[in-house]
Write a structure and sequence with these properties.
The structure is a homodimer of 656-residue chains. Chain A has 656 residues and is α/β, with parallel strands linked by helices. The first copy, chain A, folds into 4 domains: 1-93, Beta-grasp domain (Ubiquitin-like (UB roll)), CATH 3.10.20; 123-208, Roll (Ubiquitin-like (UB roll)), CATH 3.10.20.880; 225-353, Nucleotidyltransferase, domain 5; 371-656, no CATH class. The first copy, chain A, is built from 18 helices and 29 strands. Chains A and B meet through helix 5 and helix 6 of A and helix 5 and helix 6 of B.
Chain lengths: 656, 656
């Protein structure tokens, strides 16, 4: 367990607590303290000089610092690792007053919901174990008592454990004679509980000896790009291993549409199913190895994916998903034998696949609704999963409305000149010096930048907008005097990092068309929310909270996302991130039958709106193509802040 | 449809009705009229001369008949086919009086129960269709109504057919998008009904257009020796095709014990499963071809077999069946997907396998109990299925007791010098001239004899016993003057056919050890019945009826079987044959869920008695090692007949 240390930044007089080993530049960003830094944290640009006034850091000394600098306590913030409480001074070379300091970016605002665990489930009365184990010492058969093996097992489960309505699977029947006799009739039976009470319990496995303390499940999120798996201990509820890997279907098409097109070719569907199963099996193996368990000890697997991924997984041709009127094949899928899908699991394992609402609101979203528990509360919740498509769900325990917005790939880096996925070298955090317009770039992996990922993009655009560098249409202020803002081939752009500071030997820039693409993407999502709310007769003010899901959602800065008008304005404390909602839902349904039971009703309750068929959507969309919106009254706090800042900025020296 | 003709035999003055084309010798046998005939009906011995006094026969003229004979109306009975009403005179060359004629064998007494059909089931309230089809014309999806395909199907099944609680199988989900669109959304859904009302109905298939009138099932009896299949029209209840074939497992062992031993070898179980599935698939193909239906139109398959055959079919190692304390693996098997067993049927087809009672009272017997309906009546019934093992069930709708008797293979020809299965060339019927002791042999296929099958053996021993040729211990009367009774190497025997009259160029004989084996076999079965009755506190007198099943049971002469003490004495009118009880039960469970529902309770109700563990069995066995029994008071009618016959025989000329 790492220690936590307090760091105080001067002259800003801002304090933040960070874990041991964090870089100083990330700590500064977190605290809302700007430090010029172009190279993403690799020590190349040499700009991020800070003075350690008290406490210890590790590293941070480079040839860019003279001996004198070093002795004076200068360090490069991007290479300095926190080792104690610190007092850090930012050498503010320009003459700026306190009001400017106060106008530095607000501290990055992210939060995580505490995931539900087994104790929570029990406390809330939601715990109905889907799979249980019972240990039995059976009497040996004799000439006077030569019942069939299975009848003996069933009889004693009734006698000693009060079990009724038992069905014995063929795989157990095939195993039982040998296992009983090898184990001297001392065995553990695995019971799969019915989802609906009163239905039958299936005896799905039998193991020699007492294995009641070893009972595991796997949960999987089958994403278009990435597949994540968790190995869950069903006794404790703990996640024993978690791995992710690219969905190998990517070789046959980057997005769902190109996957569907491939699936329509002869043999295409079979190929795509085969490769996704291959990844699943690889992840299962890694998890089993990591957690040091036997494959035979896994009792159940639950999977969630979008509608196309789900149909491909189950070899159901997805051709109609991409054709008007966008009809998916099924909402609910029956429980399936994992081996019949090709999964390298015991033949006793049932695979439970999350149901779909529509062609573009799939099992990943349903899983998020289940896993987040939003379907159980009174609170009116907006659930958003933002990726290439943004899916939104609004509702509570009484009703649920949902829609998919074609946000385009901007949040995943698509359509952005230097856009990229949130992988190593992507600028994920950014701030800007108010006067010099110099950037502070932080990249994933603390390496020189290659591009900008979605969360970085939002922060960048929000920052440019708040500082007046771009206007509410996303156009640069033509009058600003900095080499970083320039016009090339008629296109205005901001140079985020100079070629020499990058990994790609080209200037990394953010252009007006990039900003425009982002505005269209956020406009599509925001107008989707507005339209859904209107359809149910509500407004943003009625929302009690927002849940953000998706890899992207986990990193987005809430204030910034509201600043650009991606999220409705709301107290950030009422916005929670659940990370991978699909995986969370898969995990929850592995843990309790309550989720398995509720999911069918919840899915039926989720009323799908096809935005393209919804009258008001286009008007809402056009109104949302501004930063943050045409109607600034929808964003009163931002409106106020902008007004305050602009007047403050005036006093700060520069005219806007 | 063949015509039926009346045939009158003189001087016996016996009349019988037979179908057009029947041979005269079989008609005579049926009427209880003895005609000397050694060669089994192939015209070789030339002994079966009869005179056609009126009417027409086809054939019957051979070189053994002179021109004068022919003109006088002489024909060989074995080659004469009935073509009209006939008056036939048997030229009785020996001087026998009317009393002797009356002592000719009683007419062969066999009967067949009328199989239950769909109308019966409906009349008796037993009809619950397991599989039904529903035709639907679905509205085409639109942008405003783009429900998932499956939701559309389920919704309209509810709306138009009042169907609720539907589960859709994955195979249907995989098919539905293409079939709906190919068929312009006009489709037929196949619904598999729950066995227990209130459970879920599965949508197992979807076909383009209206196929509601085409709905078929397959029923199979998996015998150790033979596998029989029926293709059943589920709309009419008619059997559209029926085929049988040897169980190819025979190559790996003739009987269940040697099969089990083979299954215990590495790969043995898999091999045996593979070959039995091979035969099943061959039969399915033949039936489908014969009935001119599509494989896809078969909706369900039901199978019944003994415990070993069932375990081999389901790849469940049968090793404990042959080891004390003879524990089978399971009583009940869950419904299985036919394709998962390797059957060449649609992936929508569920295979239902009959449950087992014990290691030696298997699904074939349970099927017989179900198919015969004995579990539904008040009447106290003795159900017997006689093969290598004889299985017996006694009971009615309130209780059922059962046991397996190790009868040995005598009834299938095993342990009998010239014993053989009931195939071509086996003597299946026999009578004997009271004075000359000349035989009348009738063989299967009307060819020269090769041996004696079980039913022939019973008739032969009963006849020898009734005519005083053997005593109640099965020993030949040493004083009879005929070359047919002789002692060879110290063993007494009766020559049934001389070498020249046979296919095998050896005298076909019946020896005292043969008779002894038969007595042991029938003793094992009869004492099994006695023991079961005693265990439940009843006697033979309490029995209301007997049901005989098995290929053997179909041909056995009831009076003769009682004469040797195989069956308890009873009015033959209260004995019925149901032929292949296993197949009949399989068929019934294909036709109605009522059988599927009842079978679990019935199987639980069937109390198994291990005879070897039952105190009184050995005493009963020893008492049964006589013809018909030590205690002749158990066979009062036979006792009376023997006494009458023996006194009659004295007047007939020869002293006993």
């Amino acid at each position: 367990m790492k220690d936590t240390f307090k760091i105080k930044f001067f002259p800003h007089n801002k304090e933040i607590a960070v874990k041991e080993g964090e870089t100083l530049i990330r700590a500064a960003m977190e605290a809302g303290v700007h430090i010029n830094a172009s190279c993403g944290g690799e020590g190349v640009c040499g700009k991020c000089r800070v003075i350690i006034e008290s406490g210890d850091v590790e590293g941070g000394i480079t040839e860019k610092l003279s001996q004198k600098d070093r002795e004076a306590g200068y360090r490069q913030a991007c290479l300095s690792l926190v080792k104690s409480d610190l007092i850090v001074r930012i050498p503010v070379e320009s003459s700026i007053d306190a009001s400017v300091l106060n106008m530095q970016s607000t501290p990055r605002c992210t939060a995580r919901i505490k995931e539900m665990n087994l104790e929570d489930l029990k406390d809330k009365g939601l715990f109905l174990p889907p799979v249980e184990k019972k240990y039995l010492e059976l009497p040996l058969p004799t000439a006077q008592d030569n019942l069939p093996d299975v009848s003996r097992l069933v009889g004693y489960l009734k006698l000693e454990h009060g079990e009724h309505r038992l069905v014995v699977d063929l795989s157990v029947i095939q195993k039982i004679p040998d296992i009983l006799r090898e184990a001297d009739f001392k065995i553990t039976a695995t019971l799969a509980r019915p989802v609906h009470p009163g239905r039958k319990t299936h005896i799905i496995n039998i193991q020699p000896g007492d294995t009641t303390h070893r009972n595991y499940a796997i949960a999987m999120d089958i994403g278009t790009t990435t597949i994540y798996g968790q190995l869950i201990d069903l006794i404790t509820g703990d996640v024993l291993a978690q791995f992710g890997d690219f969905n190998a279907q990517i070789s046959y098409g980057e997005d769902v549409i190109s996957r569907i097109m491939f699936a329509e070719k002869p043999g295409g569907l079979e190929k795509l199913q085969e490769v996704v199963i291959g990844v699943i099996n690889k992840l299962i193996q890694k998890m089993v190895k990591k957690a040091r368990i036997d494959l035979d000890e896994i009792s159940t697997i639950t999977l969630a994916g979008n509608t196309t991924m789900t149909q491909l997984l189950l070899k159901v041709n997805p051709r109609n998903i991409r054709r008007s009127p966008y009809v998916p094949t099924s909402s609910i899928y029956p429980p399936l034998k994992a081996v019949h899908l090709g999964m390298a699991l015991g033949d006793h394992v049932t695979a439970l696949v999350y149901p779909q609402v529509s062609s573009y609101v799939g099992g990943d979203i349903v899983a998020g609704v289940m896993g987040s528990g939003m379907y159980l509360t009174e609170e009116l919740t907006l659930y958003m999963d933002i990726g290439t498509n943004a899916e939104i769900v609004i509702g509570n325990k009484d009703w649920l409305a949902c829609a998919a917005c074609s946000a385009g790939p901007a949040f995943e880096g698509g359509g952005i000149t230097f856009g990229m996925r949130a992988t190593k070298g992507a600028i994920e955090d950014f701030s800007m010096d108010l006067l010099t317009l110099e950037p502070m770039n932080i990249t994933i992996g603390n390496v020189r930048p290659k591009g900008i990922c979605g969360s970085g993009l939002i922060i960048m655009v929000a920052t440019l907008f708040e500082l007046g560098v771009i206007d509410n249409l996303g156009k640069f202020d033509r009058n600003l005097q900095t080499p970083r803002i320039r016009q090339i081939d008629g296109i205005w752009e901001y140079v985020v990092a100079w070629a020499a500071e990058t990994q790609i030997d080209r200037d990394v820039v953010l252009s007006e068309p990039d900003i425009d693409n982002l505005i269209r993407a956020k406009g599509a999502i925001f107008s989707g929310c507005m339209t859904l709310l209107e359809e149910v007769g509500l407004t943003v003010k009625d929302l009690d909270r927002i849940i953000l899901a998706g890899g992207f959602g986990s990193y987005v800065d809430l204030e910034k996302a509201m600043t650009i008008g991606l999220l409705p304005e709301m107290d950030p404390a009422r916005v929670t991130f659940i990370g991978n909602g699909s995986l969370m839902g898969a995990k929850m349904s592995a843990l309790t039958n309550r989720i398995r039971r509720d999911v069918v009703e919840v899915t039926k309750k989720m009323t799908n709106f096809e935005l393209s068929e919804t009258h008001s959507y286009m008007d809402n969309y056009v109104a949302a193509l501004f930063l943050p919106h045409t109607d600034m009254n929808q964003f009163p706090k931002i409106k106020a802040r902008l007004e305050a800042r602009r007047s403050g900025r005036k006093t700060g020296g520069r005219d806007l």
